[in-house]
Amino acid sequence: MHPQLTLLRPVFVISASLLATAAALDPAAHGPLSAAATDAAVTMLTTKILESSQFAHQQLNAKLAGKFLDRYLDALDAAHMLFVPGDIEGFTRQLPALADATRAHGDSSLAHVVFQRFLERLDQRVAFITGLLDDGSFDFSADETFHFDRKEAARPADLVAAQALWRLQLRYDYLQEKLAGKQAPTIVKTLRHRAVRSAETMHRMDDKAVLEIYLEALAQVYDPHSDYMGPKQLKSFETAMKLSLIGIGASLRSLDGYCKIMELIPGGPAARSGQLKIGDRIVGVAQKEGDEFTDLVDLPLAQAVELIRGPKDTPVFLNLIPANASDDSLRKTLSLVREEIKLEDQQAKAQIIDLPAAANTTQRIGVIDLPSFYSGEATATAPATSCSADVASLLTKLKEQDVTGIILDLRRNGGGSLREAIDLTGLFIPSGPVVQTRNLEGHVELGSDSDDKVAYDGPLLVLTSRLSASASEIVAGALQDYGRALIVGDAATFGKGTVQTIVPLARVMQQEGLAPDSDPGALKVTISKFYRPSGKSTQLEGVKADIVIPSLTDVPEIGESDLLNPLPWDTLPAAPFTPSDRVQSSLASLRSHSAQRLATDADFADLNADIERFRQLQSDKSVSLNEDRRQREKAELKARQATAKKARLARAGTPPPAYQVTLKGMAHPGPGEPVKPKPALIEPDADADAGPAGPPAEDIILREAQAILLDYAGLLHDAPAVSQR
What we know:
Blueprint: H1 3-8, H2 15-25, H3 35-53, H4 62-76, H5 85-92, H6 95-105, H7 109-135, E1 145-147, H8 159-179, H9 184-203, H10 207-222, E2 227-229, H11 231-241, E3 250-255, E4 258-264, H12 269-273, E5 281-286, E6 294-295, H13 301-308, E7 315-321, E8 332-337, H14 343-346, E9 349-356, E10 362-369, E11 375-376, E12 385-386, H15 387-400, E13 406-409, H16 418-425, E14 432-439, E15 444-449, E16 460-464, H17 471-481, E17 486-489, E18 498-504, H18 505-511, E19 522-531, E20 547-548, H19 587-599, H20 602-619, E21 622-624, H21 627-651, E22 658-661, E23 673-674, H22 700-716
Parallel strand pairs: 10-13, 13-16, 16-17, 17-20
Antiparallel strand pairs: 1-21, 2-19, 3-4, 4-5, 5-6, 5-7, 7-8, 9-10, 9-22, 11-12, 14-15, 14-19, 18-19, 22-23
Helix pairs in contact: 2-3, 3-6, 3-10, 4-6, 4-10, 7-8, 7-9, 8-9, 15-16, 16-17, 19-22
């Protein structure tokens, strides 16, 4: 059954109350509802669908209403720097009636009361900040500290306390710009414009826009992937789903006033360039080289995205704070050419690598890089696409070349087609269940591989990271349950084990006999959960690696557990399946050999130092506002980075011979096109402007995975483990 049909069924039972509410608000209407009646109907409909579409089937009650209000306040004032206790007390007086008013009457008046006070506080902040900027006295010789992460901080006690926070934040912003090399007149202009623009943007928001923020807060009380989308946001979402977006190929999210990169789309300009990373924060954008950057800090995400998007084949210039920056004053500038994502850049590809082994011999392995679980029907101009069929073709080629083992690299694979995930898993097992899907009514459906054929039966290693999500977790979890593959990489995958669908509210209202005055938008709601053959959910906990390799992607806050209100991990009874148990008996030895290599590997020593420094930055939620101290810290870090670079360059060796295998080149004899050795370049400093995109730093994670694969293959064939690099 199509998931949308499953979801819409509970909506029909609310028709009587919905019609009654609309009639009460607009008794004279025989055509389209008034704006007020439409908003009430949308509010109540959103509430009812959320209540019936969640696994807990929680009615909006007093407890959830409290979370709802808190989420709305944080949506407006995430840093807890505007609202004061007196404001909150006034809002919470409406809490006892909030649940009933929302679900039974579609009353969203609290949204507008809160928003009006928000505008008043915002105007006070702008007046205060512009006054300080007019004064122009900014000295950074005192030993002063700014606590920049205030998500859990208490709100200011009164307006005077709020002004003290505004002053500290302004000084922090000013020093950031100064350390980035800007002069005082430019800094004052930027910060004044930023403050005024933020207030003007909020003042331009109409009642529909305010309602969108309010209902989005309500949806995310239930789980982080549920969402209310107004017409503009819905159109943007649909465009992204069709991959027809012209831009840089990155998924962005607003976080603490910054436009943060959350995902790089496989095959997109950003991913191919190697210049952008997940966690980078874009702070400025320009359309022409040499133009002044438009400041994106505190700009609503939709407006920032519109500036980054643009016509095909046009350049865009970005100014950003790198994810690995030791100081937020560090900036990197780069340019990309906007374009549509090319299918061939999204497709599976492989490399054949001849690795050094014992007694001066080599062992040949295959590495399959799968960016997504893509699937597409044939059109008049293009054939059907199937990632499982493509991987099957690559496996045939790798087997022809007598590879010792294969690595399936899912580190950057955020998911895709469920059917393709099942079929791809079936390439490595004879037959059996791959995934269990439980819907809202508790019905469990088995997704199974029914084909007894096995495309590859040799040693298999699946390489994962915290970025491996959804369909990737289904494949990794199933292969782990069967004992068919060794799971290696970050401690766990992302942990997204849920399925969402879009419910267009206009269609539902039409079925209820209601004609809204304007497009009422849509709801994105969770409709089912995934479970492994063993019965373990992939939700929240993800798939845990058999062998963990240190990695910077295992540190940033990018997993499901770092989102607000995630659905819990749980289990189902195991589905009947026959495991092959090829992994468990080898794990102790494999872990021991990997640990020995990592303990003596200078590259991983550097990586562990980077990880530790990053963790310290995450745990320390404050920053010094003493200019001399900040300059000294930057200089010390730059010197350490320069020393580490020289050491890495000195010990860099010649990479083993490798051959590129693409779907287009499958028919050619031999292992494929030789991969040209790249100079041993190291990634640029976080505080250095990026020049032309050069070869990335050596993939030491993949290098260790290759060594583990050789060890694993040796143990499966009763051969000694391979411990060298």
